Amino acid sequence: MKRRDFLTGAAATGAVAAAATASSFPTPAIAQDVRELKMVTTWPKNFPGLGTSAERVAQRITKMTNGRLTVKVFAAGELVPAFEAFDAVSSGTAEMYHGAEYYWQGKSKAFNFFAAVPFGLTSTEMSAWIHHAGGQQLWDELSAGFKIKPFLVSNTGVQMGGWFNKEINSLEDYKGLKIRMPGLGGEVLRRMGAAAVSLPGGEIFPALQSGAIDATEWVGPWNDLAFGFYKVAKYYYYPGFHEPGTSLSCGVNMDLWNSLSDEDKAIVEAACTAENDYGLAEFNAHNGDALKTLIDDHGVQLRKFSNDIMAEIGKISGEVVREVGTENAATGKILENFIAFRDKAVGWGKIADQAYLNARTLPFKY
Predict the structure, then answer these.
(1) Is the Cβ–Cβ distance between 130 and 152 less than 8 Å?
(2) What is the pTM for the complete model shown?
(3) Which pLDDT tens digit goes with each residue over 301-315?
(4) The pairing of beta strand 195-197 with beta strand 178-180
(5) What is the pLDDT of residue 21?
(6) Phi/psi zone of residue 98: left (φ > 0), alpha (ψ -120 to 50 degrees), beta?
(7) One CATH from 3.40.630.30, 3.10.20.340, 3.40.190.10, 3.90.226.10 for 162-242+293-329
(8) What's the CA gap between 324 and 334, in Å, rounded?
(9) Rounded distance, CA 327 to CA 108, Å?
């Protein structure tokens, strides 16, 4: 055999052997540890502060795991409708969701406590309850029944009272009012005679424009300006009794969560915790400028609910929130823990944040 033929034959034999060896491993082998995860959201695509929060979490997880977990975000309606995000993650159709827990109250009314309840906790109080007063453990127990591991992932801060086509001067003005308000806040207004409905964000403007609803709450000036509510409603009310510090959440399919390494679990948790702080800061940074734009450039009329109205709403809110605890023993346990923490937070808040904020409004030069 000529040397050239031998080398050619040897090379061919080696290639066949290499191919055979390679075929005994998964293809491509380097991709064994790479997982592509779907995150479904309840928000319009890249919507300021809400949709963009989901994108940031996805990017953080992808970068921090060096691509081992590659998260792709699907806005409301792209993979599943907004209010089906929870079911998609519970069933494994998607691996993660980014949303607000009160959207799942059809599963259990207890989910409201982990987003917002009327006259409930502020953003900082919510984080304190979840991380240091038993809230996370209770949330884990509740969500585990649906094969989901939940995390705080952002907060809107105190929300506005909403957009109205007429002034709200008395409790009578709520009777027959068609208003978009989800969660337990909607139940409070129903007991006041309003017709409260829950709509995904993307459906609110056309409903208000067509007259299907007379009023709506959404989030706050920054988000409300983005949706253009000033084009179809005249009066902008505050404060938002229904959502005093609304937590957004990231839910992870439990099978996926249990399959992750301790390192990747820590990364997912860290990414959510970082966004919880960053998201709240973003809302607080933009709301003031957006409110000025609404008033100065678009002629929006800012109105404050009277103390009489707020006191009655507060009374009904307490009744509604406490009734949630009668749903079952598990919900009662969550309610008891929540109320106990709220009582302590209110007491401390009077001599801390509330006292300082009151003092800051005094007429002195600064």
Answers:
(1) yes
(2) 0.89
(3) 999 999 999 999 999
(4) parallel
(5) 39
(6) beta
(7) 3.40.190.10
(8) 10
(9) 8
Averaged confidence pLDDT in the chain: 92
**What size, in residues, is the chain?**
366
Beta carbons within 8 Å of 355's beta carbon, 6+ residues apart: none
pLDDT digits (tens, 9 = 90+) for 305-357: 999 999 999 999 999 999 999 999 999 999 999 999 999 999 999 999 999 99
Domain chopping of the chain, boundaries:
33-158+245-284, 162-242+293-329
Measure the CA–CA gap between 171 and 308, rounded to whole angstroms: 9
- Strand 35-41: give its sheet, edge to edge: 69-74, 35-41, 96-99, 247-253, 148-155
Question: What count of other Cβ atoms lies within 10 Å of the Cβ of residue 296?
Answer: 9
Token duo for residue 73? 């975000």
Looking only at the bridges linking them, the beta strands covering 96-99 and 162-164 are: unpaired
The rounded distance, in Å, linking the Cα atoms of 160 and 168 is 14
Whole-angstrom distance, CA of residue 351 vs CA of residue 349: 5
Q: How far apart are the C-alpha atoms of 17 and 188, rounded to whole Å? A: 73
Task: Identify the helix (H) or strand (E) that includes residue 236.
Answer: strand 235-238
Residue 81, judged by CB atoms within 10 A of its CB (0-12, 13-18, 19+), counts as middle
